[in-house]
């Protein structure tokens, strides 16, 4: 199984400041034949289901604010929130779809400092 | 707007079988561009993929649960279902159903639509 390890487990950021979350994969999720990274990011607010934010490692889902961006390739990926808003308080998960079983990172909790 | 809604008992006794159904509305479960899956989340913990299924019946299972899981699809009623046998307290979780984007010839990809989830507690 591909293991995704997120860091940090939690972080507190001031409103308007930048938040950065990392996701490291135990093996590459880059499919060389199409040069796509099979990795997504989700946001889960308390009491709600996860919401897809990012797919193909950097493509923003429709309706996702552009303060959310993501990058990375191979085994190392980053989700950034450029200017943290109160509504961004949530747990964020990465997920790989390179191989079965589909797996998620353990989650990173983002709070307001 | 596609919507998914989980339904089923909220309390299951140890050693019994957990049964859940996900009803899809606002779209057809026979869409060629998606699989339909189940993901669970124990209280205060992370996400675990359980299984998914195509409208044709083709399915994938998490090896860690495969011996206890059955997933099925009912195209006539636009829903799919999960059965998890021999449950223990470790199976207590919020169970989500979700749509998984798919392109023919590939493994299914990311989960783009989710139900609200249903809490299933295993307790006598």
Let me know the number of strands of chain A: 13
Summarize the helix and strand pattern of chain A as letters: EEEEEEEEEEEEE
Total number of helices of chain A: 0
Helical content of chain A stands at: under 10%
- Largest sheet of chain A, described in full? 7 strands, mixed
SSE blueprint:
The complex is a heterodimer of chains A (113) and B (124).
Chain A lengths: L3 E4 L2 E4 L5 E7 L4 E2 L4 E2 L1 E6 L6 E5 L3 E2 L7 E6 L2 E6 L8 E7 L6 E2 L3 E5 L1
Parallel strand pairs in A: 2-13
Antiparallel strand pairs in A: 1-3, 3-10, 4-5, 6-7, 6-11, 7-8, 9-10, 11-12, 11-13
Chain B lengths: L2 E5 L3 E2 L5 E8 L8 E8 L6 E6 L5 E3 L7 E6 L4 E6 L8 E9 L9 E4 L3 E5 L2
Would you kindly provide a brief summary of this structure?
Chain A has 113 residues and is mainly β.
Tell me about this structure.
The complex is a heterodimer of chains A (113) and B (124). In chain A, a hairpin with a 6-residue loop joins strand 11 and strand 12 (103-104). Chain A contains no helices and 13 strands. In chain A, strands 2, 6, 7, 8, 11, 12 and 13 form a seven-stranded mixed β-sheet that branches. A four-stranded antiparallel β-sheet of chain A has the order 1-3-10-9, with no helix packed on it. Chain A has 113 residues and is mainly β. Chain A has strands at residues 4-7, 10-13, 19-25, 30-31, 36-37, 39-44, 51-55, 59-60, 68-73, 76-81, 90-96, 103-104, 108-112. The model of chain A has no long low-confidence stretch (mean pLDDT 98). Chain A starts with a strand and ends with a strand. Chain B has 124 residues and is mainly beta. Chain B contains no helices and eleven strands. Chain B has strands at residues 3-7, 11-12, 18-25, 34-41, 48-53, 59-61, 69-74, 79-84, 93-101, 111-114, 118-122. In chain B, the strands form two sheets. In chain B, strands 2, 4, 5, 6, 9, 10 and 11 form a seven-stranded mixed β-sheet that branches. A four-stranded antiparallel β-sheet of chain B has the order 1-3-8-7, with no helix packed on it. In chain B, strand 4 and strand 5 (48-53) form a beta hairpin. Chain B is globular, with a radius of gyration of 14 Å. The mean pLDDT of chain B is 97. The interface between A and B is medium-sized, with 23 and 21 residues.
């Amino acid at each position: 199984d591909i293991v995704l390890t997120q860091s940090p487990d939690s972080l507190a950021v001031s409103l308007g400041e930048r938040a950065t979350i990392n996701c490291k994969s135990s093996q590459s999720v880059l499919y060389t034949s199409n040069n796509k990274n099979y990795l997504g990011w989700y946001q889960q607010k308390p009491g709600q289901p996860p919401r897809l934010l990012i797919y193909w490692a950097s493509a923003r889902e429709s309706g996702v604010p552009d303060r959310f961006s993501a990058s990375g390739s191979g085994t190392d990926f980053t989700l950034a929130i450029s200017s943290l808003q109160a509504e961004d308080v949530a747990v964020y998960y990465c997920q790989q779809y390179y191989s079965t079983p589909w797996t998620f990172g353990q989650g990173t909790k983002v709070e307001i400092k | 707007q596609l919507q998914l809604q989980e339904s089923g008992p909220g309390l299951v006794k140890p050693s019994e079988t957990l049964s859940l159904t996900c009803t899809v509305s606002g779209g057809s479960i026979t869409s060629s561009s998606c699989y339909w899956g189940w993901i669970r989340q124990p209280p205060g913990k992370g996400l675990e993929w359980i299984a998914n299924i195509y409208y044709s019946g083709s399915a994938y299972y998490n090896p860690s649960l495969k011996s206890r899981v059955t997933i099925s699809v009912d195209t006539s009623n636009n829903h799919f279902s999960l059965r998890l046998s021999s449950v223990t307290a470790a199976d207590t979780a919020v169970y989500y159903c979700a749509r998984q984007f798919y392109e023919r010839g590939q493994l299914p990809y990311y989960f783009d639509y989710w139900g609200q989830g249903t809490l299933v507690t295993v307790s006598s």
